[in-house]
């Protein structure tokens, strides 16, 4: 019987599903972006900017500090980016998710009233 080569699986970081506006900058060009999810390692970004796997980009979510990232994959107008430095889960991912949930609740309250 042939030996099977089994690749170790990498455990994914916890992701927060968000819809936040921001910007993405590559090669001196800045475009609007929608950040669809975020983890301590990276984010799912949607934008009309042309990205290639391996590009170094600067991602800014709303008024937060810009984060340096590397594009890991691209499909249509979406890309997965990996942060050069992980963001703290307690301060980064949870804060982004909480602010998103608060805005959703406020929108619902405004719509319901």
From TrEMBL:
Pfam families per the record?
A: PilZ
Q: Tell me what this protein is called.
A: PilZ domain-containing protein
Report the GO molecular function annotations: cyclic-di-GMP binding
- Top-rank taxon: Bacteria
Give the InterPro entries listed for this entry: PilZ_domain (IPR009875)
List each copy of the PilZ domain by range: 10-85
